[in-house]
Model the fold of this input.
Amino acid sequence: MFRQLGAPEILLILAVLVLLFGAKKLPDLSRSVGKSMRIFKSEVKQMQDDDEPRPTPAPAPAPAPKPIEGTVQRADEAPRQAVPEPERRDNP
Done:
């Protein structure tokens, strides 16, 4: 039914393109077509990557506990009351 394009058909198509667009416009036209194809391919690849299940990353290890400075009171002990310091008397 349809046959593939051979060399004569391709040359005829190129000649028609040169007549329609001119020799100066063809490099710009082919450059823009190339950019469009690269963008299209990257979008298709991104869509395929989105369809694939991604492995879940391993959870990050917990940070090491920092030492606590000062005194610590246990929850089951009664609160300690502060012992008042003795008054100082300066006698001249």
